[in-house]
């Protein structure tokens, strides 16, 4: 088999200006989520762009998915290109939604200004630059090797920033990531062009409520304070749970290093009288709190079992109850995601690693994300394990003011993705 790398990389390099234009065009459509603005406009723009280049394109609305409504419909795009012979299907998936702008910008967030080799704007790095790079990679590959085997798919999906239920989860439920249909998935999230992300830790969100009895605040002994009970819960967490979690280390190569262990965040705490409206000028009423609630965000490791993760918290609550007469509580599950990690020897990992070495002249780092992303749906609903996140952009810039993406980084990672296609679709 002759090595077509030089020809493929030349085709990518020749599309540098097209890559910049496509990224800027995508950033200029502000697909803010929530609530999910301009999704239809974005997928229609991409549909026209891809059809003109010979792709067959479907627009798919996740009708009835969480967040979907006639006012804010959840639109997704799937484009496909078949080769001349049977073979595997390589699928690039990018989310087209972006998070709110926030404060602190010195640039216009949706102008996509270009300066000193960077494109600035909300969604440049997370992840319209990645979607554009995958499209250019596929087009360069097809130009260099029109006689390829198998098929290439590109999807631009909704709602990753709010869980992906109107996007990748929806497509997975329709069987679009069935291993019979699709054999390799690359998600060009901004993980840095020399890193391959194999998966993510798991998640358990729950609400814990402590209960007491309301009474007049001048006679607290006639009531039973749910806030004091919650104080005891938090103290027990400090004493036993946080040290236990800090001791659980993982073999997963999670970055940053601090997340290479189990973690727990207390997202919120509410007890007693609700916060007054900002325009209320009176005093609060004197009452003993009969309810107190916290929301916990527990991130767990591939070495841990979800049932055991939950049991640790139940056991803790039981210890507190044993020490505090009259105290009752409830734990309500809110959300859970099982950890996932693709094998380092999986075909998509090996070809991407080889392509990175060819383009950048260095071996890639294998990493795991501390938080989840759309791979969870591809793995769990789609039952497809051969999936990675690989794409241009610096992870730390995501969701920040003055977000940007480097044009050289996009060209390099488009080169990597094009070489992966050459390897997997020979
Ligand atoms: Zn993202």
Any descriptors?
426 residues, alpha/beta, Aminopeptidase, 2 domains, six-stranded mixed beta sheet, four-stranded antiparallel beta sheet, elongated, binds zinc ion
What does this protein structure show overall?
- The protein is an alpha/beta fold and 426 residues long.
- The protein has two domains: 5-200 and 340-424, Aminopeptidase, CATH 3.40.630.10; 202-275 and 284-337, Alpha-Beta Plaits (2-Layer Sandwich), CATH 3.30.70.360.
- It is 33% helix and 24% strand.
- The protein has helices at 5-14, 16-27, 39-52, 124-144, 168-173, 226-246, 306-323, 347-360, 375-380, 407-424; strands at 56-61, 75-82, 85-95, 114-115, 118-120, 149-157, 184-187, 195-200, 202-211, 263-271, 291-300, 328-337, 340-341, 365-369, 387-389, 404-406.
- The strands form four sheets. Strands 1-2-6-3-7-15 form a six-stranded mixed beta sheet. The chain has a four-stranded antiparallel beta sheet with strand order 10-11-9-12, covered by helices on one side. The chain has a three-stranded antiparallel beta sheet with strand order 4-5-16.
- Helix 4 (124-144) crosses helix 10.
- The protein is elongated and about 80 Å long.
- 45% of the residues are buried.
- The site of zinc ion (ZN) has 5 residues, from helix 4.
Give a concise summary.
The protein is α/β, with parallel strands linked by helices and 426 residues long. Helix content is 33%, strand content 24%.
Write the layout of secondary structure elements.
Layout: H1 5-14, H2 16-27, H3 39-52, E1 56-61, E2 75-82, E3 85-95, E4 114-115, E5 118-120, H4 124-144, E6 149-157, H5 168-173, E7 184-187, E8 195-200, E9 202-211, H6 226-246, E10 263-271, E11 291-300, H7 306-323, E12 328-337, E13 340-341, H8 347-360, E14 365-369, H9 375-380, E15 387-389, E16 404-406, H10 407-424
Parallel strand pairs: 3-6, 3-7, 7-15, 8-14
Antiparallel strand pairs: 1-2, 2-6, 4-5, 5-16, 8-13, 9-11, 9-12, 10-11
This protein binds zinc ion.
The site of zinc ion has 5 residues, from α4.
């Amino acid at each position: 088999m002759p090595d077509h790398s030089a020809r493929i990389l030349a085709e990518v390099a020749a599309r540098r200006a097209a890559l910049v234009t496509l990224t800027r065009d995508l950033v200029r459509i502000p697909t803010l989520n929530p609530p999910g603005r301009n999704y239809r406009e974005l997928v229609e723009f991409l549909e026209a762009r891809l059809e003109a280049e010979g792709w067959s394109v479907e627009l798919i609305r996740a009708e009835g998915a969480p967040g979907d409504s006639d006012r804010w419909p959840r639109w997704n795009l799937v484009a496909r290109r078949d080769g001349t012979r049977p073979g595997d299907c390589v699928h690039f998936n990018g989310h087209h939604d972006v998070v709110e702008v926030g404060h602190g910008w010195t640039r216009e967030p949706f102008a996509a200004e270009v300066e000193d080799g960077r494109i600035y704007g909300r969604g440049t790095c997370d992840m319209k630059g990645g979607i554009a790079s995958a499209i250019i990679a596929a087009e360069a590959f097809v130009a260099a090797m029109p006689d390829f085997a198998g098929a290439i798919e590109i999807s631009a999906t909704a709602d990753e920033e709010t869980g992906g239920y109107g996007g990748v989860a929806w497509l997975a439920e329709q069987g679009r990531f069935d291993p019979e249909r699709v054999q390799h998935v690359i998600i060009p999230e901004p993980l840095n062009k020399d890193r391959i992300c194999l998966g993510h830790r798991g998640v358990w969100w729950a609400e814990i409520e402590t209960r007491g009895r309301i009474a007049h605040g001048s006679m607290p002994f006639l009531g039973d304070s749910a806030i004091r009970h919650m104080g005891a819960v938090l103290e027990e967490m400090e004493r036993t749970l946080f040290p236990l979690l800090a001791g659980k280390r993982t073999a997963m190569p999670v970055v940053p290093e601090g997340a290479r262990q189990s973690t727990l965040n207390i997202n919120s705490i509410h007890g007693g009288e609700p916060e007054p409206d900002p325009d209320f000028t009176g005093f609060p009423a004197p009452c003993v709190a009969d309810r107190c609630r916290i929301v916990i965000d527990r991130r767990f490791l591939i070495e841990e079992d979800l049932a055991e993760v939950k049991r640790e918290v139940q056991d803790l609550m039981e210890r507190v109850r044993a020490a505090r007469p009259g105290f009752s509580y409830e734990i309500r599950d809110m959300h859970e995601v099982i950890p996932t990690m693709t094998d380092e020897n999986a075909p998509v990992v090996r070809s991407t690693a080889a392509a990175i070495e060819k383009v950048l002249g260095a071996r890639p780092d294998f990493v795991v994300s501390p938080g989840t992303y759309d791979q969870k749906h591809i793995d769990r609903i789609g039952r497809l394990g051969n999936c990675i996140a690989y794409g241009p952009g610096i992870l730390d810039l995501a969701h920040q003011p003055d977000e940007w993406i480097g044009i050289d980084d996009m060209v390099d990672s488009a080169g990597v993705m094009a070489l992966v296609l050459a390897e997997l679709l020979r």
